[in-house]
From TrEMBL:
Keyword Amino-acid biosynthesis annotated: yes
UniProt record similarity statement: Belongs to the EPSP synthase family.
Protein name, UniProt field: 3-phosphoshikimate 1-carboxyvinyltransferase
E.C. number: 2.5.1.19
Pathway assigned to this chain's UniProt record: Metabolic intermediate biosynthesis; chorismate biosynthesis; chorismate from D-erythrose 4-phosphate and phosphoenolpyruvate: step 6/7
Length: 465
């Protein structure tokens, strides 16, 4: 699907979709349990991939309203979970079965990393694959760590990329892993480590990037009654993942959420596009409102402070979970995205609208996502008239709304590039055609409906609307 976005004025209220990161973890944690209900889940292409993996290991995922039949749903690859307010998960009780078939993780890095470690618990082989993007992303450090723990863990092409073959069972132990490629390796080892016999001790060989995502994991594990601890160089416990030298998770634990249910909070990476859209295009003198913004461990809540720093008035009522943003003349800022890689496309788009220079630092790991997002934003914003400078670890956008013009831009088959370019298009002269816009189904399937309801001029062509 291609979309044509025209400069528009926005007003009204939008609701944030549920968090993708929490939904992945909650589905898998429920899989590790004897069964649990996941309330207000994100149902999207990526989270369906995790649901399929839970089913492949012998669990099941079905709408909790009784519309689905748990037993029948167990192996149904195309199970319809759309619009489910809650999902009933039957777990595999910490002992994944050997899957009958290959697990297709589609476009989802989180699924591939978390499910690779889960597969290591099975007494037999699991094969994991994904789409072209996922098959080009780095899995080597996690495979090496699992191999060091005595599990067969291989890339079929011996290049550290999927397809992968993993054969357990994993008993636990101590392992070293780099922290600067993906935090998802740590999340994967902690989630699986809790149900090993001996537990797992993870030592970081390089400082952790994307640390708030490990905090999300620790928060969710605690809610499922599972203990895992970040530690400093001396092995003493820390309050959070930032600055950790390693992590420990005792074995033999049981996943069980209080009252058998877990509720997913709203997604701040998705909120970043709504907030950005408001800062760029809210009706003068009116606030655009975003609901579903309750605080959680998400590092991407930093977008609230970043948009404020760029000059837009923002009020966040944390208790009500509501954000109000007004349009303003934005100015460039310097932002370190070491903890918040998924904000890079949004910040770059806002930087293209803002006056002056926006420097996005510490962004090398943002190159290992669905696409190289540093290059993608540098090139696509340049096509819209913005001047951009790309270094390995820094993206600089020399902004100015008056320079931005409509163009045909490529969403790079990447949900975040599509949504960020659509935000920039709100301020561009003329019409911007964004190609491959259907990829928003990875994290925010209702994105174009939500922004059209706010008044964004959006015309959609082709399939998948
Ligand atoms: O664990 C998670 O839910 C995620 C971790 C981050 O990846 P990295 O840890 O690979 O940076 C983030 O970019 C991704 O969108 C989701
Ligand atoms: C990088 C992302 O997700 P994943 O790593 O799960 O593909 C993302 O959602 O931006």
């Amino acid at each position: 699907m291609d979309v044509r976005v025209t400069r528009s004025t926005l007003r009204g209220t939008a609701r944030a979709p549920p968090s993708k990161s929490y939904t992945h973890r909650a589905l898998l944690a429920a899989g590790y349990s004897d069964g649990a209900t996941v309330e207000s889940p994100l149902v999207s292409a990526d989270t369906r991939a995790t649901a399929r993996a839970v089913a492949a290991f012998g669990g099941s995922v079905a709408p909790a309203d009784g519309a689905g039949d748990g037993a029948a749903a167990t192996q149904a690859a195309d199970l319809d979970l759309t619009d489910a307010d809650a999902l009933a998960v039957e777990g595999f009780g910490g002992r994944p079965a050997v899957p009958d078939d290959v697990i297709d993780c589609a476009n989802s890095g989180t699924t591939m990393r978390l499910v690779t470690a889960a597969a290591a618990l099975a007494d037999g082989a699991t094969v994991l694959t994904g789409d072209g993007s996922l098959r080009s992303r780095p899995q080597g450090p996690l495979l090496d760590a699992l191999a060091d723990l005595g599990v067969r863990a291989e890339s079929t092409r011996s290049n550290g990329q999927a397809p992968l073959v993993v054969a357990g069972p994993l008993g636990g132990g101590e392992v070293a892993i780099p922290g600067d490629v993906s935090s998802q390796y740590v999340t994967a080892l902690l989630m699986a480590g809790a149900v090993t016999d001996d537990g797992v001790e993870v030592d970081l060989t390089t400082p952790l990037k994307s640390a708030p995502y490990v905090d999300i994991t620790l928060e969710l594990l605690a809610d499922f009654g599972v203990e895992a601890t970040p530690v400093d160089e001396a092995g003493d416990p820390l309050d959070g993942a930032a600055g950790a030298a390693g992590f420990t998770v005792p074995g033999g634990q049981t996943y069980a959420p209080t009252d058998g249910t877990y509720a997913v909070p709203g997604d701040f990476s998705s909120i970043s596009y709504l907030l950005g859209a408001g800062a760029v295009a809210a009706a003068p003198g009116e606030s655009l409102r975003i609901e579903g913004a309750r605080p959680s461990a998400q590092g991407d809540a930093a977008i609230v402070e970043i948009v404020e720093r760029m000059g837009a008035p923002v009020e966040w009522d944390r208790e009500a979970g509501e954000i109000a943003v007004e349009r303003a003349e934005l100015s460039g800022v310097t932002v370190d995205v070491g903890d918040t890689p998924d904000l890079l496309p949004t910040i770059a788009a806002l930087g293209a609208v803002a006056d002056g220079e926006t420097r996005i630092e510490n962004c090398e790991h943002v190159r290992y996502k669905e696409t190289d997002r540093v290059s993608a934003m540098a090139e696509e914003l340049a096509a819209m008239g913005a001047e951009t400078t790309e270094e390995r670890d820094v993206l600089t956008v020399h902004g100015g709304e008056s320079d931005l013009r409509g163009a045909t831009v490529d969403g790079r088959a990447d949900h975040r590039i599509v949504m960020a370019l659509s935000v920039a298009a709100l301020a561009a002269e003329g019409t911007t055609m964004v190609r491959g816009a259907e990829h928003v189904d990875v994290s925010f399937p209702g994105f174009f409906d939500a922004v059209a309801d706010l008044g964004m001029g959006v015309e959609r062509d082709g399939a998948g609307e």
